[in-house]
Specification:
By secondary structure, the protein is of the alpha/beta class. A hairpin with a 2-residue loop joins strand 10 and strand 11. Helix 9 runs parallel beside helix 12. The longest helix has 19 residues. The structure holds pyridoxal-5'-phosphate. Pyridoxal-5'-phosphate (PLP) binds next to helix 4 and helix 5.
């Protein structure tokens, strides 16, 4: 059993399934019995609900977060010869999508406090070839969108939001009524990888936008470049979301607010009870509502803490141990150690501890107790 005090995984997707098993099982059977396994009303219903949830006009289901970013870039015309700016500390998919459309990823250092791209470091990275910025709301914390939107408007650069970790996070820095991440830039890209705040039972993703033309283009790009069955207007791909995943995600979407609130409650409990200790905790800012996909503390004795927690049955993780500019896959771009000191330091010091809605207060307190023992 994963639910005991001394066996706490970093994420527990099965615990979430157990909590809503009946509804999930009934929904899966409904889809199986429908005989419709590609496209159709289940997918359309989830796209509609997700668009409404975010406050955007269009949502297009994709096969993953990675393909969502890729087709969003394609729809906005990004291709060979273009440069796309993105943070050095993110999951590799953000950069892969850029490379896969033939463009060049241009990395920018992060802010040591937010772990997101540092707005003041974007300017020096802009060139005549810069077509887009991909902002990543890392760990579920909205990035400094006001500054980034300003840069994009001034320089006429397309703004894509990588919301793979920020489903439901709200930013209040531009409109006081708040905007969900994904609804702020030109397009928002979501991943429903099982461990994300809104996770499928397999791979799935979504592109959202208010731009009708781009939405139409995305829909063609994910479905063999067609609007009609056997007329292929452009060269597309098969990057569709399954109606089975869509139907299951639609069930989970109804729980997302509650789950995100529980994550925030756990995060506050961690912060309140650990703030006297000598390491850096995530900050909760006045201008946003984070959704704590990941709760990462920052300490120069990371391995000792991880080891102590492991000995006590608590799993930890590192997001991410090697910044993208130093990944073997990106060697040809010519970056060197020292190019992005904040991202490199963060990669050495960040330590993710368990955070998910199904954690009990007792488990959270046990984790807190074991962390305190390290200091
Ligand atoms: C998970 C993730 C992705 C990719 O999503 P997939 O659905 O796994 O392809 C992209 N960007 C970030 C920041 C992620 O965390």
């Amino acid at each position: 059993m994963t639910n005991s005090k001394s066996n706490i995984p970093l994420v527990d997707t099965a615990a979430q399934y157990r909590a809503i098993k009946k509804e999930i099982d009934e929904t899966a059977i409904r889809v199986f019995e429908s005989g419709r396994y590609i496209g159709g009303p289940e997918l359309e219903a989830f796209e509609r609900d997700f668009a409404e949830y975010l406050g955007v006009k269009f949502a297009i289901g994709c096969s993953s977060g990675t393909t969502a970013i890729q087709v969003a870039l394609q729809a906005y015309g990004i291709s060979a010869g273009d440069e796309v700016i993105l943070p050095a500390n993110t999951f590799i998919a953000t950069a892969e999508a850029v490379s896969n459309v033939g463009a060049r990823p241009v990395f920018v250092d992060i802010d040591a406090e937010t772990n997101a791209i540092a707005p003041d470091k974007i300017h020096p990275a802009i060139s005549a070839k810069t077509k887009a910025i991909i902002v990543v709301h890392l760990f579920g914390q909205p990035a400094d969108m006001k500054s980034i939107v300003n840069i994009c408007q001034n320089k006429k650069i397309i703004l894509i939001e990588d919301c793979a970790q920020s489903h439901g996070a709200i930013y209040y820095g531009i409109k006081s009524s708040g905007q969900k991440t994904g609804s702020i830039g030109d397009a928002g890209c979501f991943s429903f990888f099982p461990a994300k705040n809104l996770g499928a039972f397999g791979d799935a993703g979504m592109v959202v936008t208010d731009d009708e033309k781009k939405a139409k283009l995305v829909r063609m790009l994910i479905n063999h470049g067609r609007e009609e069955k056997y007329t292929h207007d452009i060269i597309g791909n098969n990057f569709r979301m399954d109606p089975l995943q869509a139907a299951l995600l639609r069930v989970k979407l109804k729980k997302l607010e509650r789950w995100n609130d529980r994550r925030l409650e756990i995060a506050k409990r961690y912060i309140d009870t650990l703030k006297d200790l000598p390491f850096q905790l995530p900050k909760i800012y006045n201008d946003s509502k984070p959704v704590f996909h990941i709760f990462a503390i920052r300490t120069d004795v990371r391995s000792a803490v991880a080891e102590h927690l492991k000995k006590n049955g608590i799993q930890t993780g590192v997001h991410y141990p090697l910044p993208l500019h130093l990944q073997p896959a990106y060697k040809s771009l010519g970056y060197m150690p020292g190019d992005f000191p904040e991202a490199e330091q963060a990669a050495k010091e960040l330590l993710s501890i368990p955070i998910y809605p199904e954690l009990t207060n007792e488990q959270v307190d046990y984790i807190i107790e074991k962390i305190r023992e390290c200091f």
